[in-house]
Write a structure and sequence with these properties.
Shape: elongated
Largest sheet: 6 strands, mixed
CATH topology of the largest domain: Rossmann fold
Distance between the termini: 71 Å
Number of strands: 17
CATH class of the largest domain: Alpha Beta
Structural class: alpha/beta
Strand content: 25-35%
CATH architecture of the largest domain: 3-Layer(aba) Sandwich
């Protein structure tokens, strides 16, 4: 409409000048402009009746894997002489091949398929709108519209395969698994000796113990192995994020660790839930199997650092989500004010394991440690972190001080293979 207004203004001015000066040349100049304007008004686009359908080749992919996106645009109205179609991409997507905007024409009933390929880092990407602008060939009249074409893409973290992660929650569920249940029955590890009862397998008879009693027979009893409730907690507080030159992110290491741990626990048959805490408490309700794995990976795909929340929120974990005797696995760089809260959770009866990506080693990897100021600051930070982790270990909490340069599986095998002191829970004061 701007061009119509400008042309109309020029024609009006020329007509006034021609009449005022009685100049036929100026009046003659009006004729082609009138023809130009009239053609645009006559052949300009009518109301658009477009239908857009979006197709995405994969809804879930790993980082940097190409994904093909296609838009099928159908013209259900009159012919459009010139139409610009521009897809509105979510931020963070990189176009590898093809174009996201096209200029073409569409006959009535004609469809056009537009294809391009994108790739992205971990994240959740939601496609929403397609911008279209129709015009005549002269560009006199334009009509614009924003069409809805919903779509979504989960770029999930690449899951590292871990071996079995040994956990010892105080409570287990009724189903068979790999976690010692502290109860006698069918199993592998020797648990104790009890008197023979009718129906016990004869191969379990302990002949040495039975030989010491004439009228009594004793059998070996083994420790039952069952599954447990496991809650994986990822720290998404902004203050827990550390970035170094080159774009490496400590938070991304935590996300991949959470994904690998959840995969390992689910593979062993446990009931696993996920909690993201940062700007809000984001729960993935505990569940089993491949469906739960998919839910957790989609939640981790959306995870982003946010403004810090009060960490003490974890003191009020709902028991319907995770019973008090279940296993909690926290992935966090940790801060000094986290110690009291974690000890409180331990006192409530939770078995607590902390996988702590080391922020000191992560930052020092990109610094010149020959600088005396940097070396002194690093030493003080290391001492403070060592004391903090020592307090947590004294409370019976399993700690992995993880240098992210070391593969997580290897770090877990070395650091968490040692037995953890058994601290019985006590009622928290107050």
């Amino acid at each position: 409409m701007n061009r119509v207004l400008i042309l109309s203004s020029i024609i009006y001015v020329l007509v006034i000048l021609a009449l005022a000066t009685l100049n036929g040349v100026l009046l003659a100049l009006v004729v082609p402009l009138l023809i130009y304007l009239g053609a645009g008004l006559v052949f300009g686009p009518e109301e658009m009746a477009l239908h857009v359908e979006r197709r995405i080749s994969h809804e879930r992919v790993l980082p940097s894997v190409p994904v093909e996106v296609s838009l099928v645009v159908t013209n259900n109205g009159p012919r459009l002489e010139s139409i610009l179609i521009e897809d509105q991409l979510p931020g963070g997507l990189e176009v590898i091949t093809g174009e996201v905007s096209w200029l073409t024409s569409l006959d009535s009933g004609e469809s056009l398929e537009l294809v391009y390929t994108v790739a992205a880092s971990r994240g959740y990407y939601r496609f929403r709108d397609v911008f279209v602008e129709a015009a005549d060939h002269l560009g006199i009249r334009q009509k614009r519209a924003v069409l809805s074409a919903e779509g979504r893409l989960f770029v999930q973290p690449d899951v590292q395969r871990l071996g079995r992660v040994d956990i010892r929650p105080r409570g287990t569920r009724v189903y068979a698994g790999f976690i010692p249940a502290r109860q006698g029955g069918p199993g592998v590890e020797f648990f104790g000796v009890r008197e023979y009862q009718h129906g016990d397998p004869l191969r379990w008879i302990n002949w040495r113990a039975s030989a010491r009693h004439r009228q009594r027979v004793f059998i070996n009893e083994f420790e039952q192995e069952r599954v447990a409730d496991v809650g994986v907690i990822l720290d998404t507080r902004r203050r827990s994020e550390v970035r170094v030159d080159g774009g490496a992110s400590l938070f991304e290491c935590g996300v991949h660790a959470a994904a690998a741990l959840a995969e390992s626990f689910l593979k062993d048959g446990n009931r696993v839930g996920l909690l993201l805490y940062g700007t809000q408490l984001d729960w993935t309700f505990p569940g089993y199997g491949k469906v739960q794995r998919e839910r957790i990976l989609q939640s981790l795909a959306r995870a982003q650092p946010g403004e810090s929340m009060i960490f003490e929120k974890l003191e009020n974990l709902p028991k319907r989500l995770l019973p008090a005797n279940s296993q909690l696995v926290l992935v966090s760089p940790l801060h000094s004010d986290d110690v009291e809260v974690l000890i409180h959770l331990r006192a409530r009866g939770y078995a607590l394991m902390v996988i702590s990506p080391d922020p000191v080693a992560f930052e020092l990897a990109g610094m010149d440690t020959r600088d005396k100021t940097i070396a002194l600051a690093a030493r003080l930070a290391r001492i403070e972190r060592t004391l903090m982790l020592h307090k947590l270990r004294q409370a019976g909490i399993q700690i992995l001080d993880w240098d992210v340069e070391v593969p997580l599986g290897a770090a877990i095998r070395v650091a968490l293979s040692r037995p953890v002191p058994q601290v019985h829970p006590v009622e928290a004061l107050g």
